[in-house]
Structure formats: structure tokens, C-alpha cells
Amino acid sequence: MNTERSAAPQGTAMAVRVDAQRNAARVLAAARRAVASAGLDVSYHEIAREAGVGVGTVYRRYPERDQLMAAVLSDILTELIDTAHQALDCDDAWEGFSLLFTSLALRTAQNAGLSGSLDQHGGPAVAEQRHELLDLTRRVIERAQDQGRLRRDLAWQEVLRLTGAPAVQGCVLGLEPDPAHGHHLVLTVLLDGLQTG
Amino acid sequence: MNTERSAAPQGTAMAVRVDAQRNAARVLAAARRAVASAGLDVSYHEIAREAGVGVGTVYRRYPERDQLMAAVLSDILTELIDTAHQALDCDDAWEGFSLLFTSLALRTAQNAGLSGSLDQHGGPAVAEQRHELLDLTRRVIERAQDQGRLRRDLAWQEVLRLTGAPAVQGCVLGLEPDPAHGHHLVLTVLLDGLQTG
DNA sequence: CATAAGTGGACAGCATCTGTCCGCTTCCTC
DNA sequence: GAGGAAGCGGACAGATGCTGTCCACTTATG
Questions:
Q1: pLDDT per residue over A123-173, tens digit each?
Q2: CB contact under 8 A, A168 and B171
Q3: Selected residue with higher pLDDT from A37 and A108
Q4: What are the residues whose beta carbons fall under 8 Å from the beta carbon of B140, sequence distance 6 or more?
Q5: Is 60 exceeded by the pLDDT of residue B115?
Q6: Is B80 exposed, middle or buried (0-12, 13-18, 19+ CB in 10 A)?
Q7: How close B174 comes to chain A (CA, Å)?
Q8: Measuring from the CA of residue A16 to each C1', which nucleotide is nearest?
Q9: Which of A2, A24, A89, B80 is deepest in the core (most CB within 10 A)?
Q10: B162/A185 Cβ within 8 A
Q11: Rounded to an integer, what distance in angstroms lies between the CA atom of residue A127 and that of residue A131?
């Protein structure tokens, strides 16, 4: 994702070194994993360890924590926007809807830590992406409603909010042998509850 | 909950002082709130602050962290067991089921931090409570299935697992103005998806 | 090969948590 | 009341872990 290939070397300036690019990619990927498993407060050391680089490298790339989080969020949004386009390309509106709904839910579940706090952050570029995804999602949902496949008693924002549901399977009782199965189960029942009778 | 009234003073021994009892209750309540909002790793200082007592008091009451967490869990289980009994008392099996399901879901949502790690801990007393709740829950679910009101294609454990669904509403996108509304929404749709016909 | 870009990780400074200890307060008994 | 034990609060030391910097070293490039 977001592999920033530099432009050709201009004048005598040196091109961006390939090892630097590779490390940048590693850091971003590690950050995604780290944020997913340890929340927004992951330490830079943790990310560096996960990426197999030194802390200095992470700090050089993202001097401000906001920048790092924005990069992570942007990376996720890019993937989701892509999925949303696929969803709109489906002839069957319900199929498209469940595709997007499932992706959103799983992505949200994997990044439960990434909630609220980043809403306002991330700068205009990320805001733009978020807006785009939101718009696509609205269209996917409304199209499914128009085709009579999706309940009409919920506003599209409400349907969207449901994607946050399977975020955590933590239960007071002690049964979660397989979170993946749990997510799948929740999605199945939610979709059953959303489908038109 | 669990207010441990001491037996009458035996011999010349002094009865448990009332201020000590009051503080014990405060600490437990504070611990529940703190665990709910900050997870299992809340510091003792945080709990003490929340309870309005000194750290020493908390440490004296619960020298081991496990003991504190077991107390919290036990307190929650007690409430839920009570609700489960109410559910079994309902003539309408579906009504009973949704009562218990909703309670379990909300309680789980409020205590998302209290997941996994405590499964094995808590000692035999808590294990006993958990077992009791599990058994009651199974009966509530199977009764609803027997009355033909609840989908039969899910095992009772699967239905139970669904209660963990609304645990977190954190979304990659930025909309969670009202978590309570979110929970309610999820429950509504889940129940719709679970109902027969 | 020369050189600059990039790297790793030690390190100082800071924040926070744990667990203890002891002078003081509160409650109970007589 | 008065005496004394039980309980309390919170300062404090020690441990841990995080942030952010800095510089000797490595590596890609021309």
C-alpha cells in the first residue's frame, strides 16, 4: 500500500534509496499490526521491534505521532475505498452490500483501537479519503435498499454503525476459542437481521 | 453486592468495623467502574482515587491483583445469575431470552476489558458461579428454541457468543456519537436475525 | 572507491506504577 | 467519656517502560 516510488533523480540529487523505501514500508506495516493489537498507544519501540528496525528510523519517518497514525488510517482507508468500488460494481446490490459490510466489519474488528480519537486528526487528505469512503458506502447501502433487498427502517448511517458490532468478542463468560469464527457468526446473524424478509 | 456482614463478635474479638465495610463496598464498586473503563490493567492508584480512599486501603483488601479481579467478576456474575433466573420465570420463552441476551450483551459491552485473561483465574467459587450462569443460559436458549421462537441452526454456545458482539463500537470511520444507541441498534438487528420466521 | 544518506540502539530525562510503612483518625467496648 | 485496637491515607523508594536525541557505523549510489 502507498508505496511511494520517488520521481527520477532530478539534477545531481540522489534518488530515494531503496533500503529506505523498504524500511518505510516495513514500518507502516508494523505500525498497522501494532496498532491493531495494542491500540493507539503503542510505543514507538514496540513498532520498531515489530518492524525489525531501530527506534531512530521510526522517529525519523514520523516525528509526530499524529503523522504515523494518519498514515496507518490512510492505508486502511485506501483498501476500504477499493472494496467499496468493487461493491458498487456488483450487479446484485445485496451481494455488493454484504461484501462491503463484511470488509468494514472485519477491518473495524482488527483495528478496534483505532476508534474515536482519530476522527478529527489526520489532516485534510485523510478527511478527504474518509469522506469518499463514506459517500461510496452510502451509495452501496441505498442501492441495496432501492432494490428491496435491505431493510428500509434503518438510515444508512445506522446500518454503517452496525459494522462496528463484531469489534470485540471479549465476553464476561469464558468462551472465545476462535475469534474468527465469532466474527463470522456475528456477521451472519447481522446480515440475516438486515435482509428483507 | 456481596456485602459481607460479619458474624456477631465472638468472645472478646471486635466486630468488623462499619467504616471498613463501607470502604470495602466503595472499593469494589470503584474497581468495577475502573475495570470497565480502563481494562484489566487499571492501576491500584486509579481504583483508590475512584473510590475516594488511599492506596493502602485497596492493597490491604486485595493484596493480590487476582483477588480483586475475581471479586469484580464475581460481582458481575451474581447480577447476571439473578437476571437469568428472572428470564426462566418468564412464561414467554422469547421474552425471557431477549431479556437475558440483552443483559449479557450490555454487561459484556461495559466490561470489554474483562475478557479472556480471567477465564482460568478467579478460583473455584467464581468457576462455580460461571458454571451456574452458563447452565441457566443454556436452558433459557434451548427453551426458546423448543418453543420455536429462536433459530435452531445455532448451537446455544453460538448464540451465547453473539452476546459479545456489541462490545465495542469503535469504528475506522468516525461516527459514534451515542454508544448507547449503537448498542441498542446492534441488539435490535441481532435479535431480528435470531428470531424465527 | 568516495561520499552522503540512512541506520541502529545506547542513553538521559521523565512519567507512572507497585507495594510498604507509619503517624494519624475512627470506631468499638467498657 | 476514655482507652485501645482496627483501619486509614498518602508519602516514598524502587522498578519499569516510554520518549526523543545523538552519533558512530553501515550501505546504496554514482
A1: 788 889 888 999 999 999 999 999 998 888 888 887 887 776 666 555 455
A2: no
A3: A37
A4: B84, B87, B88, B93, B96, B97, B100
A5: no
A6: buried
A7: 5
A8: C5
A9: B80
A10: yes
A11: 6
B86-91: long-range contacts (C-beta < 8 A, 24 or more apart)?
B87/B136, B87/B140, B88/B136, B88/B139, B88/B140, B88/B143
Rounded to whole angstroms, the Cα distance separating A108 from A130 reads 14
> In this structure, is the CB of residue B9 within 7 Å of any atom belonging to strand C?
yes
| Residue in A104, A168, A178, A196 to test binding to B, most B beta-carbons within 10 Å | A168
3-state secondary structure of A11: coil
Q: Which nucleotide is nearest to A43 (CA to C1')?
A: D18
Domains located in chain B, CATH noted: 1-63 (1.10.10.60), 65-194 (1.10.357.10)
Q: Give the residue on B whose Cα is nearest the Cα of A163.
A: B171
pTM score over 0.85? no
Does the C-beta of B152 come within 7 A of strand C?
A: no
pLDDT digits 0-9 by tens, B41-95: 899 999 999 999 999 999 999 999 999 999 998 998 899 999 999 999 999 998 9
Give the residue whose CA sits closest to C16 at C1'. Answer: B43
Q: CB–CB of B167/B112 below 8 Å? A: yes
At A33-66, the pLDDT tens digits run 999 888 888 999 999 999 999 999 999 999 999 9
B103: chain A residues, CB-CB within 8 Å: none
